[in-house]
Request: fold
Amino acid sequence: MTPSAGATNRPAEGVAPEPLPGVIDAHSHTWSRELQHDHTAVLQRAWDSGLSHLIEVGCDTRTTLASRDLARREPRVHAVAGLHPHEAKNLAAERAGLQAAIEGGGFVGIGEIGLDFFRDLSPRDEQYESLRWQLELARQHSLPVVIHSRNADEECFAVLKEWAGRVGRYLGPDREIGMMHCYAGDLALAWRYVDLGFLISVPGTVTYANNAQGQEVARLMPLASMLVETDCPYLTPVPHRGRRNEPAYVVHTARFVASLRGCEPAEVARETAANAARLFGFAL
Ligand SMILES: [Zn+2]
Reply:
């Protein structure tokens, strides 16, 4: 197939999938530039596609405040406050603003925070400092954490294991303490995170034909430990791969997970939505 033929066969951007009632996108960045020019339509397509809620996640103080503004306007959106590991080099400048935002309330979690040794856009010692500081903030404010870990499997696990061992199930015996956003590790590591009290979030990359490891995790993890997410505008699932991602497309990911497991898409939607509501403490 020529590249141009492939392009014409791709679905257009902004097409709402067949609805999957009740599904939740556990991780979105609709504040991003790519999604701002038609933001109202992006949200409308999310609701039209059956989403009951979405979790909007900040990466620095500015986008944290934008996430909270959106959550205050739209009750189906819940905001998460944090400094991304790429931005950890700005911790000194961001710290006071982020802390003030969190103390102002209106957030359901702290994130996205973590370690990224793939792109290494911040020095590693500053990534560690930013992560550890925000883990303590989460404990102080009784909020769960949203973790970004890339090419740092064991390093990130070691930090979270130490922290989880110290803070315990601080949100209550039946609630997890965090989620592994865009989980890209293997099944054994996923189980170790579940044992620490984390949920495993499956992104759109699970739909990619060459992602055997991600598909194994999505097939074999209990639904009780799973979330589905877009991480929009990135990591667009099939059939929109190569285009901009948006919350509505979490439906494609949930349906694909159901096909891997041989169950009904409604079951994936219902269970992962219940997990998101429990983790972030809102009613469905
Ligand atoms: Zn993200």
